[in-house]
Design a protein that fits this description.
Blueprint (H helix, E strand, L loop, with lengths): L6 E2 L6 E2 L6 E5 L2 E5 L2 H9 L1 H5 L6 H12 L10
The chain binds zinc ion.
Length: 79
Amino acid sequence: MRNATRYIDPVCGIEVDPSTAAATTCYNGIELYFCAESCRRRFEAAPQDFVVSERKGFWRRYLERLHKATGGKPPTCGH
Ligand SMILES: [Zn+2]
């Protein structure tokens, strides 16, 4: 049985299958998958909007979801 790893679009929060992801980017050593090119553009235009604590732990929750979704092995990049 194939391990269907799913990642999460940090912009809209939906689960993204990496094989069908519309766009990816590298942020802080983590590979991020997006459901659409427009989501990637929104993230890259202002990554801090999605990462800073003003979003009430959004990024921390995102990483927790990502760790859960990927069995503790979030996709890394840029190393
Ligand atoms: Zn999206």
